[in-house]
Every structure is written in structure tokens, then in C-alpha cells.
Amino acid sequence: MLNVLSYINGKRKTNSSGWTSFDAPCCVHNGETPDRKQRGGFKFPNDTDWSYHCFNCGYTASFTLGYPVSYKAQRLLKWMGVPEIEVQRLTLESLKHKDVNQLLRERRNEEIHINFPTVQLPQTARLIEETDTLEFVYLCNRGVDPWSYPYMIDTAQTRPGILIPYTYDNKVVGWTTRFLDDRKPKYLNNCAASGYVFGTDLQHDDWQIVVAVEGQFDALSIDGVAITTNRISDTQAAVLRRLNREIVVVPDQDRAGVELVNDAVKYGFSVSIPDWDVDVKDVNDAVQRYGKLATLIGIIKNKNSSKIKIELAKKALERRL
What we know:
Layout: E1 12-14, E2 19-22, E3 40-43, E4 50-54, E5 60-63, H1 71-79, H2 84-95, H3 100-110, E6 125-127, H4 133-141, E7 152-154, E8 161-168, E9 171-179, E10 187-190, E11 209-213, H5 216-222, E12 225-226, H6 234-241, E13 246-249, H7 255-266, E14 270-272, H8 283-290, H9 292-301, E15 303-304, H10 307-320
Parallel strand pairs: 11-12, 11-13, 13-14
Antiparallel strand pairs: 1-2, 2-3, 3-4, 4-5, 6-7, 8-9, 9-10, 14-15
């Protein structure tokens, strides 16, 4: 496997948080003056993967074993002086580590045509404002920043509620309204597209992991994606795979969540079942109890890709229910 540190020219240092810093090679390619203050850095979460960040020009890139070398990573390695033949060799070596069954699944997923038709939001919908006290308080109480997403209000509805637009490739493909009173139904959905995954447009190119959860507010509170149910369809699996990063599924901690674990294993995704308090049933509950950062740390620390370890974690969950 390619040793990227061997291509660093000049001084370098590793700090207590695990970053190996050196003069960033990307700055002169991004309109900045050459870096002389060691503001570029690599971090290695394990023996094979790495992430890069420049604290001067902001350039980021990453590499994950089992996936091709991304365009941004290729540019970085070229700027560091890595020969093109070595980059090609790294991709070939990386793909050798991809599970054969996963490759077969991905080939089948490529045959799935993903085309979510665009729709128009209700003409009576408007963005929420600070004067919408009920809606603002509801979002804040759920640990969600009211300005982090284009939350709306449908003025034609007689019940108070928050309209959440559904987007894919930055096009509106549907929406759901979460009513705020105690009447049923709690949600009113309008999305004709089968196989939709909420939140894919919120993911950043340099993120190595995407956390997949059940509910929209679970996803919004940690910048993840939502299956919107406790089952994963073939189309949803294909949508997730097109994000080209590790998928970590976090089920609700109830009986229905066990089915989501089974589907995650079926599609070869990682699973995380944190040991939360017994009354914390989902990710959004965890954010409200522990905060966003602590919730994410708990998810990452407890993620498993081993089928045996996932099965043990699932059995432990079932014993708690």
C-alpha cells in the first residue's frame, strides 16, 4: 500500500491529536501563496485509510481501502509528486480488498435505474421565520438548528406543522409535513418516488462515512441520511452506494429496528448500536440527551462491519428490549 508520508518533502510533525503536519502542496494550485507554516495535514484512522486537510486553502481529500482513489485524492498525490503509475497501482490494490459479494451487489445496483421525478412544492408553502415561535421552539427542542435546512410552513394546513422538502441532486422530489399537535397522523407524506433516501444532498464530498438512520429528524440532527422506515429496499441501497463511502446504519432501539439491522447486513453495510440509556430510543433522542458531538462519537466507536460482531450487538439489543 502507498506510504504517502514518504513523499513529504521537508519537515513534518505529528501532534497529540494524530495529525501529521507539513508544508501543504495544494495552496499554490488553489490561488494561495506557497505554504511555509506546515498547515497541511494527514490523519490516519487505521493502517490503510487517510484523510487530508489544508488549514490554509481549505483543500480536503481522503482515501478508504476498498474504493478507487477519488479525483481530489489523485490531485493531492500528483501535487505531492506521486507518479501516476503509483496512483493507478493504489486503486487496483485497494479494490482487491473489496468483498466479492459486495462487488456483485454493486454491479446489480448499477442496473437499477434511479430517476426521482421532480415535483412542485405547495404554492401555499413558505420558509419559516423567527416569528414562527411554535415551529422554532419545536426544532430547537429536537436539537436541530432551524436555519440548517429550508424548513417551511404550509399555510393551507389547519394544523400547525413543519414542511420538510425532499431533494435529490438538489431537485425537489417530494416533501413531508410533521404536525405539531397531538392528533394523528403525525406525518403527511407526499413523495411518489419509490426508493427515496432523505438527506443525500446534505453529504460533503470529503466525508468518509455516512450515517443512515430511520427518521428525518434523526438524520437532520447529525447530518446523516434517513431511510424513512425500518426496511432498506434495493433502490435505497443503490442510492446509498452511489455516495461512495462507508455506510453506517444506526437502527432505532426497538423491535422494528432489528429488521433494519438485518437489511444492513444483507447489503453489506456497517452497523452501530451504541449502549445508550434505556429510554433513548433513536438518534434524535440521543442528540437531545447527550448532544450532537457525543452522539456521533458513540456511533463511530460502536460501528462494526463484521457480521459476527453485528450479530452479537443485535442480540445484546434484543436482550435490552
